[in-house]
Design goal:
Length: about 60
């Protein structure tokens, strides 16, 4: 059985790890709604509106 991603409570970054690679937080939620993948966070209007930092997979509502 595949392990589902967890959303970081601090930044929304999705990960399977025990520590968030984006902000080093250890607080996660397993239920979230919607995902967005950022490839170029610096030039993205969606990243600005979603208030994401860095590139990668993020939960929209957590």
């Amino acid at each position: 059985m595949a392990v589902k991603d967890k959303a970081c409570k601090e930044c929304g970054h999705l990960t399977k790890e025990e520590v968030c690679e984006n902000c080093n937080s250890r607080q996660f939620v397993e239920k979230y709604k919607g995902t967005v993948v950022m490839f170029d966070n610096d030039n993205s209007i969606i990243a600005e509106k979603a208030k994401t930092t860095g590139n990668g997979k993020f939960a929209l509502k957590y």
